[in-house]
Structure formats: C-alpha cells, structure tokens
Amino acid sequence: MTLGVVMLVHTALDRAAQAIRHWGAGGCPVVVHVDHKVDDARYSAFVAALADVKHIRFSKRFRCEWGTWGIVVASQAASTVMLAEFPDVRHVYLASGACLPLRPIAELRDYLDARPDSDFIESATTADVPWTVGGLDEERFVLRFPFSWKNRRRLFDRYVKIQMAVGFKRKIPAGLEPHMGSQWWCLTRRTLGAILNDPNRPVYDRYFRKVWIPDESYYQTLVRLHSNWIESRSLTLSKFDFQGKPHVFYDDHLELLRRSDCFVARKIWPQADLLYRAFPRTERATSTPNTATIDRIFTHAVIRRTRGRPGLYMQSCYPHMDRENGFTATPYSVLQGFDDIMPDFTAWLSRQASAEVHGHLYASDRAHFAGGEGVFRGGQSDSAKLRDYNGKMFLTDLIWNGRTHYQCFQFGPKDTQDISWMIAKDTNALISVVTGAWAIPLFRSGRAMRHVRKEAARLQQIEYKQLKILRSPYARARIHICSLSEFVAAPVDALQLIVDQIARYRGVAITELPAMADLTGFGEFLQDLKNQGMHPFLTGDFPIVKLPTSPAVKARKPYVAHGK
Amino acid sequence: MNVLTSYSLRLQRQRWKLRARRKGRELSGVVDRTKQIGASDILLFCTFRNEDVRLPYFIKYYRDLGVDHFIMVDNDSNDGGQDYVAAQPDISLWSTKSGYGDARSGMDWLTFLQGKYADGHWALTVDVDEFFVYPFCDTRPMRALADWLDASEVRSFGAMLLDMYPKGPVSQAVYEKGQNPFDLASWFDAGNYVISRNELMRNLWIQGGPRARAFFADKPKTAPALNKIPFVKWSRQYAYVSSTHMILPRGLNLVYDQQGGEKTSGLLLHAKFLNTFGARAAQEAVRGQHYGDGREYQTYAEQNGADPDLWCNWSEKYINWRQLEVLGLMSKGNWA
Predict the structure, then answer these.
(1) For the ranges A124-133, A180-189, A198-207, B326-335, which has the lowest average pLDDT?
(2) Please, which of A42, A133, A407, A556 could form a disulfide with A332 given CB 3.0 to 4.6 Å?
C-alpha cells in the first residue's frame, strides 16, 4: 500500500470505474473525486457499482470546469482524504478517469520504491518554457481572469488587453516563484502534506484562485518550496497539441503505447475497447519509459497543423498571400532563351542532368511537358486554357506532383506571363535568363522585316518588364541574367552553372555542347532592326561581321568561343 | 461594409430557411423512426432517385463507419429502391414527386429535415454516390472524429469531392448491387486541382480532376465545383447554400487554414463514373433538373457519347486514406 491514487472523474464514468478497478486490483487505495456536474442519480449508481472495491473513498464533490480553481480544490480535498485515511501511502498519484495504467501496477510501485524521496512533477519557470494556451505565460500569474476562456473568449481577450494596456499587475505572494507543468503528478506524502498543511496556504490559495489554469501551476509552484528532490517530469504520458488540449489515444495506438513502456497514459478515447482490453498488460518487464516515438508522432502532427507541407495548396490549407510556408515544394529551374539559341537544348539538358526537362510550359498553344505528353504527373492537362485558368497553381501543382524529381522548364516572352511575379519571389526558383535570345528565331524565320520589327518590339517590351520584376527588391529567387552577346561569348560558363544548380552542388563537367543556331548575318539583322527604329537593347552588342557558328568544345575554357 | 454584408447574409440564410419550410410541405413521410435517435447520434442526410443498385452498399458503408441514423428523401423513384430503404431499421424515409432542381438539388428538403432533426447532432450530408473518407477512417469510427472535433471546438469538416474512374470506357465498369464501387472505379487524379477563394462566403472554390481535364478543357470556368463541407455539428440556424459546397453562417466555410498550416480534412470518393453514368447523363441532360439546368450533363452527353475513358498514364490507383494524405489531397492536420 505504498502507492495511493487520487482520481478526478468528469465523464465516461464506466471507463473511470474500469480504471479504478485496475488500480484497486494492483493494491492501491483510490480516492475518487467526481465532478459536481455529474447528476446525483448517476453518481449514486457509480458509487454503488464500485462498492466491492476494497480501499476506495469518495471525496466531497466540487464543480470542475476547465482551467478553473475548482480542479485544484477537488484534488486538495481528495489528497487530504488520502493522507488521513491511508497512513501507509508514501506516494500519491494524481490521475483522471481517462488515464489508463499501461504496465502492471506492481512495476510502478517497484519504480517508486527505488526512488522513495522523489517527487515526480513537471515544473518549469514560465520565462523558459513556451507551452501555453492563448500565448499567456507570465501574464497568467499577474492578471485577473474573471471571464471564461471557453465560453466568453472575446470578453476574456479584451479584458486581458485592457489590463496589459494600463499596466495592471497582481502581487505574487512573497517567496513564490511561478512554475508550470503538466497537471498530472506523483508526490511523496511528505511533500504533499507540507503543501496542504503550509501555514501560508490560505494566502497561496487566495492568490491561485484567480490565476488562470491554476491546476497547471498550483502544485508546480508550491512543490518548489517543500520538495527535497524534484524529478521534473510526469509519470503520466500525456501529450498536448498546439491548442493546449490533450492528444487522445485510440485503438490504433496500441503498439505505440505498448512500446513506450510508460506507466500511465492519457487521454484514452472512452470507446477504445482494444486499449482497455490490452492494458494494463500482465507480463512484467523492467524497462524504463521511452516516449521518443510518441513524441515524434505528436510533434509531427502539430507541425502539420501549424506549418503544413511546403508548396502544398489544398482544401484545408490555403494561405493568405505570403503567409505560405514556401510557394513551391522543391527547387526548380526556369530557363529562358537557351532553347532559342540552341534548338536542341531541352534534349541536351535531359542528357546532362538527372532532371525532368520540360519545354515551354506556358506556351500559347499548350503546355509542352517533358516527353511531349498530353497529360502529366497528377493528371495535369496540357490544355492552355486549363493552365491559364489558374497559371500560378498550374506551377505549384506541377512542382508538388514532381517533387521527387528535379523540374526544369523553358520560359520566355512569348509565353503567358502570369507566373513572373511568383517565380521571382520564390526562393525555390533558379532562374537563368539570356536576354534578347528571342531575336534568334525571328532572325531565322526569314519573315518580312516589317512583321519581324513589330514582333521584336513586343517581345522586348515583355522581357524588359519581366527583367524589372527579376531585379525588383521583392525578388527572392536565385537569378542569373546575361545578355545574348555575353552568352555567345562564353556559353559553357552559363550552361555549367545550370547543370551545377540542378545537381545542387557541382554537376558533371560539360563535355558536349548543344549545337548553336547558325548566327551568320545576325549582326546585320540587328542593325537592320535598328535602322527600322527598333533598337534591340537586350541582345547586347553584336559586330556586323561574320560570327563563329558552333564553337568547338573544350570544356571549361570559355575563350574557345573566339578560338576560330 | 462588414455590418451590411453580414446582415445581407443573415437575410439570405433566413430566406433559405423559409424556403425550406415551404418546400418541406412537398415531403410526405413514409417511415418515421426518428424517435430512435439518441442525444449524441451521428445522422446522415441524403436524397435519392432511382438508385436501387447503389443503395445497399451505400447504407452498409455508412453503417460500418458509424452513422447511427439515416434520414433520407426518395425523389419519385420507381425502381424498388425506396422499399429497400424503408425496410431498414435505422432509416427514416420521406418521399416527394416534386422537381429536384426546384428544390435546389434536393437541398430545400434536407434543410427542412435538418432543421427538424439534426439540431445538436453531427450531420453528414451526402449523395448516394459519395463515400466519406477521413484520416484514420480504417481504425476509428466517425464517433471518434466527431468527439475530436468537439474537443477541438470545430463545427464543420471539409471533404473535397474526388472523382474516381475505371480504366477503360466507363460503360464497361458494370456495377452490381452490393459491390464496392471502388473495386471498379479505383483510379483518380492526384494533382490537377486549382483553388480560388470566394470572398463573400469565405469558402474555397476547387475545380479540376478528370472532369475538368476531359470535359471542360475549353471552358474551365464552368467545371464542376469539388469543394464540399459535408460534416457539420448542426444547429437549426444553419443552411446549406449550394449543394454542400457552401453553408451559412459563413464562418462554417473556414475549413482551411490561412496561416500556412493544414487543418484536418477528408474526401468524398465520388463513384459517378460507372456503367450507370451514360444512361444517367443522357436522362439528366433532358430532364434539366440539375445545377444550371443540367448544363454539366449536357456537356457529358455531347462528348464521347457519354462513354468516356478517363484513365491516363498518370492516374493513381486508390489504396487507402494514407495514400490520399501523402498525395496532399486531404490532411491529418493535428489529429494523430
């Protein structure tokens, strides 16, 4: 009888009765406090049903509402009964009706016998710990909270704000340093008795009565005055989510709970029949509690709820602009101008790097997916109308669907420009632009100069606008811009950069260059445009002489471009 | 502006409620077992018309999932399905011969019944070809979800419509009574959905999937809406606005997080594309009782002789809810 259990019961009386029987069968006296909200008929039936349990007492009933003083009063009353009626009890365990012992009670007793002077109670100073509901940590000890947080949230918040604005602060009784922690503790008779019989208790009680959620701070603070040895952890496995409500265990947590080797877990869903059948387990073990796996799962759940998956937009996650945890799921490359200079560029790049290389995804006729497919990953259609219906989500979907592969696509002034701002702001985007490259297809089209002039002016206009976006202070992408003449002078540099970026660090050295378009007469072409009054300023300077065509490849020696 | 907007929405809601009261008179009771409904029972609301072949599996599916009582409206069936339903011990049945379209796709009838029976209950509103999937649905009954939502102070739960289709022409997926439709229509599109926000009602408007890809590529704006809010802790003041896509008061439409996180959500697997599809598309196109006078059905009827093959190389084969969660179609949120 060295271990006694104080149990607070609110709902699911049948499950509470089951837990009481477990404790009783393990040889623990139990003092039960049933919430005053439970009506008398149900209470009487509950008491009668437990008449056969040997060492059981029922303490005076108080009203226990979430986060109120009533819960502390209830535990005080029940603890007093425990200490008075069961003199053999050395450790008192505070549990709830939704707590379920996982291991044989005898093992818990052995564990406590080996640590007779330890008080197991999570107790941390507010300054150091951020776990709190409603963002109130220090405030809960110095403000007043006359309004219910659950039912009158707006009034609650407003009153807090007013108090903070006028600088109101309650005085904390001398000698107390506020601590907080899980409300489920296991204290020694010595410590618990000292707390309950402290001559200053009326002062402390008066103070804590008005503290917010006192059940998480009353014992946690006072234990610091009286305990010889605090083990600041709870023996009850109890996880809280970001709203401060406990995670609930279901049947599918069976293995997880079994492997945790915790003594007691809460909160168990009342209808988790399998758990109530499986625990407490009967076979003995000597392992110590290990909650790493459970921790990880519940931490992940909270992150999923608060941060989400980067780059995913879906029915239950649609962030306000710029609140998203990343516009897109993974890094990707946007390549502009290269395929104008080197018609074979797309095929070449797919050979060079392990990436999915798309053509112009935003082309006016259709989305040119890698391999020329009509429908791509996730069922994305190549229809230009569908794509342009929501151009940004077309890209976020594409990157999300292809997040296991590196995605590259060609872009240019001929394409729909809906995504210009988005990719510029996206830290995942690697944007390489050869400005003025659009002039090469025009040059090679052989069309009449008056058509070409108009088209060139339009494309230059669009590209110029886009460059302004890429150079704006809001641009967060990794951006590399060079003019056509710079590129032609040293193509390997720019291409190697692309390959390296796809490989994340350093890709294979380029040994083979894609064939360049024949630029014989390109200088004259540009001069012709100028003569028509359309200055192609984005191409850079081209002399009106014959230019070299395909440069011979000697990797990593950019000057070979001039080496003819 | 804010006060005016909320006031006009309030008026709109009251209008729907009034209309439901009027339309409720079109209903005549067939079997009323509503006395059996317990205080915390989960209810299912559904309208059907000539769905005899689908009803047995539908009812079994939701019974297994933990629906305690079904409240159904038979819209002039003549295939015997209504008798099957009336014989079930946990179903209350009403019937009407009035037009489905005139009752806002049957929503007026259901709003009337919801106001009467669903107050204070968790209520699931679905069609006979919609199958609710939520995180952990293979191990936790709907009661667990409802309890968790209650504890989290969440009043409404979103579940996007996910169109399922067979491999090959739909006419060849011959569905038999009692069969799991997803044995045949086991494929879906994983990632071609686009979202915009309805600023007035605050719901998301989701379009995409195989229907947008196959039928609406030329008119994406008219593609069917896939956003749905089928599971609601009902109060007699509530009213669905358009099918279960939107609900008033509009706060209930916020089933999505706006700070970058993910709220818990589920899916409605849509077993529309089976051999029953062609005949129905032809019928409904003529009847014109569906949304926008059956424009959607006219589109189907025009194309492929209403016998499309929606399957493509990138179609995903359905395994379980975890797969849907990993693909980002639904989310566990902070339920673990």
Answers:
(1) A124-133
(2) A407
- Burial group, residue A343, by CB count within 10 angstroms (0-12, 13-18, 19+): middle
Domain C-terminal end among A267, A288, A306: A306
What DSSP element (H or E) covers A430?
A: strand A429-435
In a domain, A168, yes or no: no
Residue A445, CA atoms < 13 Å, CB-side half-sphere: 15
Q: Which one of A257, A272, A306 terminates a domain?
A: A306
CA distance A178 to A189: 22
Q: Which pair of tokens denotes residue A122?
A: 């999570």
Residue A165 lies in a domain: no
Contacts of A242 (CB under 8 A, 6+ apart): A302, A305, A306, B334
Domain membership of residue A225 as a residue range: 3-134+178-306
CB contact under 8 A, A241 and B334: yes
Residues 6+ apart with CB under 8 A from A175: A200, A225
Cα separation, B143 vs A213, in Å, equals 29
Helix (H, G, I), strand (E, B) or coil at B42: strand
- Residues of chain A by 3-state class (helix, strand, coil), percent to 5: 40, 15, 45
Q: Do B192 and A378 touch (CB under 8 A)?
A: yes
Q: In CATH, what number does B2-326 get? A: 3.90.550
Residue matched to tokens 């409603």? A134
Non-local (6+) Cβ contacts of A256 within 8 A are A293, A294, A297
Nearest Cα of chain B lies from the Cα of A365 at a distance, in angstroms, of 13
Distance from CA of B4 to the nearest CA of A (A): 22
Count up the domains in chain A and report the number: 2
Instruction: Assign residue B295 a region (left: φ > 0; alpha: ψ between -120 and 50; beta: otherwise).
Output: alpha
Find the length of chain B.
Answer: 336
| Phi, psi at A192, each rounded to 5° | -60, -40
Same structural domain, A282 and A407: no
Report ipTM (2 d.p.).
0.94
**Can you give the CATH number for the domain in which A232 is found?**
3.90.550
Give the closest-approach CA distance of A226 to chain B in angstroms.
Answer: 36
Subunit contact A379:B259, Cβ cutoff 8 A = no
SS3 per-residue string spanning A20-32: HHHHHHCCCCEEE
At A123, give phi and psi (nearest 5°).
Answer: -150, 110
Is A313 domain-assigned?
no
Q: Could B213 and A318 be called an inter-chain contact, meaning their C-beta atoms sit closer than 8 Å?
A: no
The helix or strand, by DSSP H or E, that contains position A231, with its residue range, turns out to be strand A229-231
Tokens at residue A386, please?
């569908």
Considering the domain architecture, whether residues A245 and A379 belong to the same structural domain is answered as no
Backbone CA torsion sign across B221, B223, B226, B229: positive
B183 CA to chain A: closest CA distance, Å? 21
Q: Which of B65, B147, B163, B193 to mutate to test the interface with A (most CBs of A within 10 A)?
A: B193
Is the domain of A32 the same as that of A71? yes
> Given CB atoms, is A293 within the 8 Å cutoff of chain B?
no
What is the C-alpha separation between B72 and A330, in angstroms, rounded?
47
Contacts of A374 in chain B (CB under 8 A): 312
pLDDT by residue for chain B (336 residues), tens only, comes to 588 998 999 999 999 999 999 999 999 999 999 999 999 999 999 999 999 999 999 999 999 999 999 999 999 999 999 999 999 999 999 999 998 888 888 999 999 999 999 999 999 999 999 999 999 999 999 999 999 999 999 999 999 999 999 999 999 999 999 999 999 999 999 999 999 999 999 999 999 999 999 999 999 999 999 999 999 999 999 999 989 999 999 999 999 999 999 999 999 999 999 998 888 877 777 776 665 556 677 777 666 556 889 999 999 999 999 999 999 999 999 999
Helical (H) or strand (E) element with A483: strand A478-483
